[in-house]
Amino acid sequence: MSTVGDWRAIVKSSLPTFVFTALLSVIVAVYIASADFGYHWDEHWHVDAVKNSVTTGVCLPNMFVYPSVVYDIGILSLLPHALGYYASGQPEHGASLPQYLLRVASGRSFVLQWRVTLTVLSFLAALWTYLAVYRWRESTWEAVLAGAFVCLSWEFGYHARFIAVDALEAQFVALSILCTMMFLTGGRADWLRAAGAVSGIAAGTKYPALIAIVPAMLAVSVGPAQGRSAARRLMLAGQAGLYCVLFFVVTTPGALLDLPLFVKHLSWMASVNQSGWRMHTVQAGWTHFVLMLQYLGFAGLSFQPTVALAFAVLALWGVAVVVMREPRLAVVLLSIPVLYVAYFSRMQVMNARNLLLLLPIMAVFAARGLADLMGMVARHSTLRVGLALLVALGLSFNVWWAFETAFSIRNPDPAGYSRQLVAFIAAHPRMHVALSDRLERELSGSKRLGTASVVAEISGPDDAIAFYTSEVQSMLLYTANKYNYAIAWFGSHEINFNYYPAWPNDTGREYIVVMKVRDALPLRLASRRMEQYRRRVGEGVRGGGQTVPGGARGDGSDM
Questions:
Q1: How far apart are CA 503 and CA 519, in angstroms?
Q2: Which residue in 130, 251, 300, 332 has a CA-CA distance of 20 to 30 Å to 420?
């Protein structure tokens, strides 16, 4: 019979795994519950590709702006409906199978089914991160932290519920890192081949994820020798590369079967990245590099910039620890972020979702950094408890924010957004806020608006302006690469407005935004206060746009 001590040991050893499993399950459920958020600008690429295949009977997507893994998942999602068609024995209204499947693929329920599938698959990134850290460090709590940093990242979470490639790409990159770590810690060549295969699937999800093969290649030279000669190592690296190519072609067969269109769309993507894309256009080089670091540092692991920065500092500490103590492993783990950021710094397009694949790697280093700091203060119980509480507080905020954003999607309250603005202004009496014309009319009778904070005349660029997004002359006038673009916004939180400001205009929603005057000047707002200030300072306006191949719908982020 087990003693009380035995049971305590079992509970103690099982508790971290239970905590992580419960946390991941709850967070996935929250994002699934908020999957019905309405229209998304990018989903038409994939939905139209599936509908085209149903119509033509050809299982090729007829577009290669993205590779085909998400399309493949969409096609596979139709299989239960095809089986149900035959199992019913009574085709709906006499429709043929293609007619029936086209009706299914055109329906809202199919879109939601697809979103839920991708949400679940994408959040596996947290599991792979957990397992990779556990295999490396043999510490369950450190593994729990790494997995928690991923699944509680709002940036990762809201992207995961889209029919889009980015969060799923990050999941496959995390899986390839797990396979590479299994090879490094065990030496079995099969794990390296698996890393190559997964890297090919990652590239079949989004082309830049081909970079996931680099750690596997490096692992051949820095991993356990186990009697392998140089020729054997070279052969193993070649096998990993071959598996990568093979699985890319298997998941994106159009790269061979529809080569002219594949090359055309790939060339178009390359030209866009070199020339810029609407509000996501940035100056290549140092400016782009800094903006990417700001996203990763102030938004990547939390919506709250202070929390995100604290977790990013932990990640930097973890990088320093690994570089000093395990330099060969550091070369493997840092190869993706170093090469990826260097590569994208050369581009003139910054889209936040391109950086999602770096979040699991940040999480690995953040967990390692925290574990090292906890070890340093092991003899100082007050510091140890204080550090643990601060991290727990940051993660708790992320949990709360996941629920808060899901609630805002499921329970939109357009009539309440102006009340939230009034409460915000009342809570910031030192902030000078001008109102757009519409807000002036709506809030003219509000007793809570203090005369000290709502100004009749804008005095300078550091004043703030509050406006409805529908009052922006064109969504192309936004800038979409600043973590602090908006001071605040009030509306449903499907996305981070700072990086997707065109979202409300493009999807028929309406937010109230508070923004510094200097950032709002180019928007040509319907505001007498802004017009008066603009005339005084002589501020110009910018704009522009580009054409998407195939006549795709225009928006701010169709890429």
A1: 17
A2: 300
| pLDDT of res. 116 | 98
Q: How many helices (H) and strands (E) does the chain have?
A: 25, 4
Residue pair 426/448 in contact (Cβ under 8 Å)? The answer is yes
Burial of 38 (0-12, 13-18, 19+ CB in 10 A): exposed
| Strands of the 464-468 sheet, one edge to the other | 433-435, 464-468, 512-516, 488-490
CA dihedral 499, 505, 509, 511 (to 10 degrees): 60
Which neighbouring-strand residues pair with 488?
Answer: 514
DSSP 506-549: HHT---EEEEEHHHHGGG--S-HHHHHHHHHHT----------T
Which pLDDT score, from 0 to 100, does residue 1 have? 45
- Paired with 407 in beta bridges are none
Q: Which residues pair with 349 in a beta bridge?
A: 281
CA distances from 429 to 424, 449, 460 (A): 9, 9, 17
pLDDT in tens, 331-351: 999 999 999 999 999 999 999
138, 388, 487, 510 from 490: Cα distances, Å = 44, 32, 11, 9
490 half-sphere exposure, CB direction, 13 A CA radius: 18
Angstrom distance (rounded) from CA 135 to CA 179: 10
Indicate whether 204 pLDDT > 80: yes
Higher pLDDT, 275 or 397: 397
The two structure tokens encoding residue 522 = 């180019």
Q: CA 159 → CA 59, 162, 477, distances in Å?
A: 26, 6, 23
Cβ(265)–Cβ(559) below 8 Å: no
d(CA 25, CA 9): 25
- DSSP code of residue 281: B
- pTM to 2 decimals? 0.93
> Helices 189-205 and 166-186 sit at what angle, rounded to 10 degrees?
170
Who wins on pLDDT, 541 or 383?
Answer: 383
Q: Is residue 555 pLDDT above 50, yes or no?
A: no
pLDDT on residue 476? 87
DSSP, res 487: S
Round to whole Å and give the CA distance between 295 and 155. Answer: 10
